[in-house]
């Protein structure tokens, strides 16, 4: 169902009055984690003013250490809803546990499947039973073929609104957090009609690389970007070193449009 051969035209999804796929570049921005009402509403207002089309923010966080901040969980979802009500930005947030599925279907505009759950097949099957758009991150060491098969797990259940997100893969290189596989953009565009967006924040782990990787992604034909933005990156509870400030975000957005790929 994801295969371009049976669906030659690009899929375009309309979500909360915004489009993903087609000629517009979707801009999803916000903090790694929702930390407080003031934080999420402030960031949402700032990124909206600079051109973001969706708000991101983790409520349930997949942290490497169980002793690290795990997210505000249900309260985080409530705060995202407040930020959406104040700005009109549709919300994107990660699901970890099928036990929260009904809540996510009710509250969230795009449900994110994190890299660590890309092959959680029972979760994918349950998402396939919903009608919600799914942002499917590439697994830490997943091949393009495995990633597309995970999209098929969702689509096989009848939910065809899947958006791929390349967020860097594991390689021998450890200067960057991961290695951004820009070649995933033309590969997915050739193999599938589904949109593909790029996460330069998790791909590099380094704030100064976010702008050049956004430019490269857009030039290579990405359908969108998902960028971590924090009002005070030094104090962020998660992923501060890769988070840009609202001012930095505004600068990036003013620059990237001119790199857009010519068809
Ligand atoms: C995230 O987007 O907050 C996240 C945890 O990303 P990933 O699953 O790509 O590591
Ligand atoms: Mn993060």
From TrEMBL:
An annotated Gene Ontology molecular function: aldehyde-lyase activity
Alphabetically ordered keywords of this record: Transferase
Keyword presence, Coiled coil: no
GO terms for biological process, alphabetical: aromatic amino acid family biosynthetic process
Span of domain DAHP synthetase I/KDSA: 20-257
E.C. code: 2.5.1.54
Keyword Transferase: yes
Protein name: Phospho-2-dehydro-3-deoxyheptonate aldolase
Annotated organism of origin: Cellulosilyticum lentocellum (strain ATCC 49066 / DSM 5427 / NCIMB 11756 / RHM5)
């Amino acid at each position: 169902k994801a295969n371009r051969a049976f669906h030659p035209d690009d899929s375009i999804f309309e979500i909360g009055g915004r489009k993903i796929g087609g000629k517009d570049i979707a801009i999803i921005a916000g903090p790694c984690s929702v930390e407080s009402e003031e934080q999420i509403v402030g960031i949402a207002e700032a990124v909206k003013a600079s051109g973001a089309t969706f708000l991101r923010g983790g409520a349930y966080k997949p942290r490497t250490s169980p002793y690290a901040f795990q997210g505000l969980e249900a309260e985080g979802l409530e705060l995202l809803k407040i930020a959406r009500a104040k700005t009109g930005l549709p919300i994107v947030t990660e699901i970890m546990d099928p036990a929260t599925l009904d809540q996510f279907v009710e509250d969230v505009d795009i449900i994110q499947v994190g890299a660590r759950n890309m092959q959680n097949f029972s979760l994918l099957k349950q998402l396939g039973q919903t009608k919600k758009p799914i942002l499917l991150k590439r697994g830490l060491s997943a091949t393009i073929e495995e990633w597309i098969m995970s999209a098929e797990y969702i689509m096989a259940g009848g939910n065809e609104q899947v958006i791929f997100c390349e967020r860097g893969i594991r390689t021998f290189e450890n200067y960057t957090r991961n290695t951004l596989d820009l070649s995933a953009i033309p590969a997915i565009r050739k193999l599938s009609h589904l949109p593909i967006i790029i996460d330069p924040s998790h791909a590099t782990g380094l704030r100064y690389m976010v702008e050049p990787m956004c430019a490269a992604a857009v030039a290579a034909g990405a359908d969108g970007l998902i960028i971590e933005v924090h009002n005070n990156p030094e104090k962020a509870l998660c992923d501060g070193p890769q988070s840009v400030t609202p001012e930095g975000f505004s600068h990036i957005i003013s620059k990237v449009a001119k790199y857009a790929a010519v068809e």
